[in-house]
Amino acid sequence: MSRRKPYLVGHQEFARLYRVDPKQVAQWLSPSRGRVLDPSTAVVVSGVRYWPLGFAAGWGATTAHFRQVDHDAKAEIIAEQGEGWEPRLAAELPPIVGQQEIIQIFGLPSQGALATTIASGRFPERDWLLSGSMLWMLETVLDSTEMLRETARTLPWEVDEAVVAALRDGTYDGPGSRVLTRGRHTRKSS
Q: Where is 84: in which H helix or E strand?
């Protein structure tokens, strides 16, 4: 099944848009640096922030010190992600999951069990590879449930509907829903 996915950026892609080191994006988020990038503009997936490309590309024009977006970098990011659409707000995004959320959806015993399934090619192809992390639309993962069950040797691949409902309505607060920074958890921003 083909779905148009929203264009997203992680820290590395956000940095590419403005030709800065990815550490600069973390500094823009820092309260001690005046927090020029509001963390609530991102979604948190598997403990990492991701932004809609439309927001990230327009962000530089909204700051006190104008920053010019690199339009070539934006075009490259779009080309890397394939067919999609350009959201501006985190609220426009469909539910997105990474490995931590997938482990909770299926009640898997460990990240290793999921990693083995992904490496074997039995897991659906990722929708994104951003800042080195694989991400999927929730529906991509759920659509693969029957195939996962059929090819499983030991794991039941049973869906925890409460986790799915929380992911769909934006109330998920399990593993991966918080960003770990400097030894403490930061709550998910919506």
A: strand 84-85
Report the C-alpha gap between 118 and 115 in whole angstroms: 5
170 vs 168: CA distance, rounded Å = 6
Q: Which tens digits make up the pLDDT trace of 82-140?
A: 999 999 999 999 999 999 999 999 999 988 999 999 999 999 999 999 999 999 999 99
Residue 3 has pLDDT above 80, yes or no: no
Residue 154: pLDDT band (50, 70, 90) is confident
CA distance 45 to 50: 7
Reported as type and span, the H/E element at residue 119 is: helix 111-119
Q: Which residue has the tokens 């290793």?
A: 112
Phi-psi region of 46 (alpha: psi -120 to 50; beta: other; left: phi over 0): left
Contact residues for 125 (Cβ-Cβ < 8 A; gap 6+):
none
179-181 vs 5-6, strand pairing mode: unpaired
Lookup: tokens for 167: 């992911």
